[in-house]
Structures are given as C-alpha cells and as structure tokens.
DNA sequence: TCGTTCCGGGG
DNA sequence: GTGTACGGAACGA
C-alpha cells in the first residue's frame, strides 16, 4: 500500500531533470532535461516522445457510430481508429478511456456522435461536461507517463533568467520600449537599449536572440503576464516581427510566444486574464507568488516590486529608486542611473523568486502539471485534483460521474469566530488545534464518499508523514543551506496540499470528488472540538476572550507561570479524541481585545503586537501612530497616567507647534489624471490633488504617491519626496519650495489634527475603559486641581474587561 | 452621507 | 487551457 501512496504523491516514472514539457493535441511531446555529463558540465537535452491523446467518457454511445474504427485497446488500428479501455466502475462513472493517434480525430468522432444522439450540432466537448472528462495535452502526457518535473534537481539547478522592460508609457499604444534589463543566475547582467524610436525593432530582435543564446529554463519578472509580455507582444506586432524566445520546436525553429485567456475566480465573480506560454521555457510571474504568499500571511504593505523587496530584506543599500513616470526623462539625462535602476529591478525579482518559488518548485515534483501552471494554480482544483485523477487511472479505476458526487449536504457554516470579552485582559494564553480540518479528516476517516479508492485520505496521510520528515530534515540541515531551503520548500508545498484537502471536498459541482456532506461533517466535528476546549477552559475557571475555528485566547489566574499554563493545555488536549492535538501557542502579559480579530498583545519581553485593521490607522499620520502605539502599551501595562500623558503631550505638541508638518502629513496614491480631476473639481475637492495644484503642479500620473498636510483655512500643502528623485522641473510651472523646509513647517491646522487624534486614534482604546473613564482620559481640558473633571483620581482608573458573549 | 463598485500591478 | 479575497478608495445616488 505504501508503494501506492508514494505513486499517488510523486508519480512513478523516475526520469530525472525534466525542466519543461511541451505537448500538443496530435500527441507529440517535447521535453527538456537538465543533465550533467561526467565532467560536471551541465547540458539540456531535448527528448521527443509521443502519447496517445485520451479522454474519459461515461459511455461508448457517441463513438459507436464509428463501427469497425472503434477498437478495444491492445489491438492495432489506423489514424481513424478510436480505442477504448474499460475501467473498473459502475454505470454513470467515467469508465471508458477513449484514445486515438490524434486528439482531433478523437474529438471529431465524439462531436459527430453527440450531434447525432442529441439531434443538434455539438461544437465542443465542453458542451458535454457530464459525459466527458478531459485535461490538457501536457497533463494527459504527465498523468499517463507518471513523469513529473524536476526529479533530482534543487532550485538553484534551474537556469532562471529575469528581464524587465523600461518603457516610455504604461500603455503599448502610447509608448515604446527603450530599455530591457536582463540577468540570469549563471552570471549574466546586461542592459539592452533603444534610445530612439527607430531602434526599438532591433532591440526586440537582440533581446530574443539573447534569450535563445542563454537558453534558460525559466523566464521571470514581476507582473510578467500583466505588463511585460503584453507590451512585448504589442510592440512586436507593430514592427511585424515574431517573438521567438522559445526553445527549438518540432520543426527545428524556435517556438513563439503564445497567448490564451484564462478564467480566474477571484472573489465571487469570474474574471479573465491573459496568460502566455512558450515552448521549452516556464514563465513565472513573481506577482503571483507574492499574492499567494500574502493570501496566508496578510502582512504586505503593497504588492509592488520595490515594497515587497524591502519587506523581504532584498533591497540593497545602493538600490536606485526612480518614480515610474520619470524614468524615460531621467534616462535622457542620466542613462547610467536608469541602467542601474533596471538592473536593481531584475536582481530583486531574482531574490523574490528564490524566496517564494520553492513551494511551487516542490509541487511540480508531485502534481502532473507544468511548473508554470502550478505556480499560480489553486491548490484544490488546480493541484490536488490532477493528482487524484492520475491515481485513479494508475489503478485502472473509473472517476466518479456527476451522479456520484454528493452536493446535497447543507452548506457547511465553517467555524464561527466568537468574541467572549472585550477590553483589557492580563495573563493571556493562546492555544490552538494543529491542522484542525486535515486532522479531523484523518482521525475520523472523513473523505469523499465517491473516492472509492480512498485516494484523498491516502494522499493526506502520506503527505502528513512526509511533511514531518521534511521538517525534521530542515531542522537538521545547515541553516539557509541549499538542503535546508529544499526541505523547507517541500514541507511548505505539502502543507499547501494538506490544507486544501478539506476545501476540495466542499468545492462544489466542479470538483470531481466533491462531497459537501463530508465537508460539513468535518466542520461539524471541528465546532464540537472547539466547544469542548472552550467548556473545559471555562470549567477550570479560565476567562475566555476570543475564539475562531481552531484556536482560542483566554486569561489564566494572576500568579500562574508558563509551566502551569502548558500543563492546563496538555490536560485539556488529552481529553480530545486521539489524533487531535491541542497546542500551546504562546503567552502574553496583556491583551486589548477590540473586536473579533482586532486586538493588541503585549509579550512578556515587552513587544507590542497589533493585529487587525481596526487597531491600525489607514491614514498613518506619524504623530497619530506614535500616540496609538504608546497609548496601547501604557494601557496594557495598566499605566493609566501614561495614557493620559501621551494624549495630553500630543495635544500640547500640536498646539505648541512642536511637531513638524511631516509628522501630521499623510500619503495617498493618486488615481485620477489632471484632466479627470479638473473636470470634477467643481463638485468635489480632494485634498491630495488640491495640494499639488496649490504647489503649482499641473501634471501628474495616476499611481503617484502624494504626501501632504492640511494647513489653516483648508489649504493643503504638498511635501515632495525628500530624495528629489521626482524633480523634473518641466512638470510644474513654478519650482516647488524646498522639500526640507516644507517638512519642517508649522502652519498645519492644529484643531483639525486634534480632532483626528481624538476621533480616529484615541477611539481605538474605547473598549479598554468605562465610558466615563474614557471621556475623562481623552478630554482636552487640562484639569485644574479642584475643578472635579475626574470624579476620582486618575490612579483609580483601571482598564476593564467586558463580557460580550457566553458559550 | 450612504451603499456599491473597483482595484490591487507595471512605465 | 479554471475555480483566492478583503480592505480601502472611488463612485454614484
């Protein structure tokens, strides 16, 4: 059985070093292997192969019209033959594997038969989803052969090339490419240029030639699919040249860039996006990787390359920054600086790739799909399902038909988020159930009822064990070594799959192995486990604060130490069903619970952790944020006069103009062009644009970030960025004031900012106090000694914890 | 002012 | 050729 498990996870064919696969509907395949010869020189071999294109059918009805051209598999045939193989499975399941020498012959036969059967013209197989199950040519080949990408390779073995276009505008109709920075992880760093419009064609040709010469396995950039490739494609069209950046195809010529539309379900609606593909190389957009990363972590300030590179600590000290709209103008005056800027871009892309592509790399060693697809595929439908299909065909077993899926179950509610108390609590502990849903599936053997072979649970079991091994191996390896990164990436890939197993069952009618009853059984048991934990805590006198699907914050008695807390968690964990592990996550000296998922924690080492938007300001004026962090810390420490002082000091600093303008300024991103803004200005004034106009600027581009503050009489003052990187004087009529002088001005609207302090920063501490205490703490009156603003002295104010809900 | 829609990125 | 979403800002009544 173990052998099956490993085949389910990794396929079975041992071919090492596959770095790209290209297959078409005629059953022709090229794949490229990266190998080393005896002397250790690396080479890329191109291998030609064939496969017989296949499709799965629930019956032979549509192909019976073929007569003697319909033949059982194992017997010979001609180019017109359609073969069938019967898999184990009941009526209604996809139990006939149809194949032909050419996929088009196969489809033609099916469409003809279906048209006869339905008495209407059937144009595509997609019109018959209940009757046929089909995957793309590369997937057919990988599923049939048991091959996967990258066997025996480490991430650094891949030859990756990054390139970045610099253009005169964002829109290829209005601008052109004047520079392309190219680097790879084999030592290349080069800048190709076209100072004049007539040079652009040559530039494109040189670029294609360079790519072919370097012959990388992977092409990478940030927003590759959204910007660089469409731009390249459009400019190539204008110059009437082809973008031959692929590896050599069947006819001996380099393969061209191809485009296709992809439907993505982002949010509730489906949206289209254009994808590109090229033979022999995998196209990787680091923007996809960044989105996927942040989907879990939710910590990135923006998805822009520069911001993300800084976030990951990839930006170098000497990194050149230039505002997007200034790049071309800057290039004309200071070309060397723009060259450095563009090379910084590609090297940050390389850094991002190293940091984020490990998991998709590891997934490509498991699932039967192209690496480039796995890099952006959804984990359930895009990765797990192809693995399930591969396993079923390997076992000669039919896939469940639409009738076998279970879609009826009541829509599972998932795990509720609950707020038991708001305000300030001390001695707080976080505990949660490790991998709750996958653990429940394993413990209670809850899988899709239509998964007759139990493949999903097998894969889940095997991945869970393998992941523990990988994690152990990662811990043993030299930190940050190639091996450590490899193990770490593999365990991360496995985690992605493990976590998607539950979601897959509830994915609805599109999932082949959907079982929404099983999915709701998982959430039902999950809720029961959580309820058991909550009751156990309450029974022992703990104060519940907040709970979500698989975790809980609660307060323990005052004098408790970490050992006692751990013992409590272990004790309650021991009462849970075997296989369900309650983990002690951490302890905090205090917590401000604001709303569900919005709280601040103070660790015993004094670190302040703020979670959720409600406790962060969206405007981030520096003075307000400083105040909030200080006030939160004081509140959590019980230092009430510290809170009052922070407030009074901030008010006073504003009144006395001790704060420079930069401290009250906010920074926003422009979205309107000058024309658009001027057209609507009569109706509605917007501070950011007013600030620019006030400074005499008449030209700007959407996307620019503008820092400004509010001065008296509703005047808005623009503070240009300190680097002066943006300063090209043709953009405004009168030269701007000195940025340093502006940053230090004191003519801001004091009363306005005091209101902001009160209404948008102090507000966030409201739950920590009784209404009377809150108003007393944040009143602007400096109390005289005896005028009784405080009903009781400040020292008597204590933070409160208010019960919101009971279990 | 409130709901509703759109966007996120790239030069 | 498939299957994330949520917070903030802009927009429209």
TrEMBL record:
Catalytic activity from the UniProt record: DNA(n) + a 2'-deoxyribonucleoside 5'-triphosphate = DNA(n+1) + diphosphate
Span of domain YprB ribonuclease H-like: 163-333
SMART domains named in the record: POLBc
Keyword set includes DNA-binding: yes
Enzyme Commission number(s): 2.7.7.7
The keyword Nucleotidyltransferase is assigned to this record: yes
Listed GO MF terms: DNA binding; DNA-directed DNA polymerase activity; nucleotide binding
Keywords on record: DNA-binding, DNA-directed DNA polymerase, Nucleotidyltransferase, Transferase
Domain DNA-directed DNA polymerase family B multifunctional, residue spans: 451-766
Family: Belongs to the DNA polymerase type-B family.
Protein name: DNA-directed DNA polymerase
Organism name: Thermosporothrix hazakensis
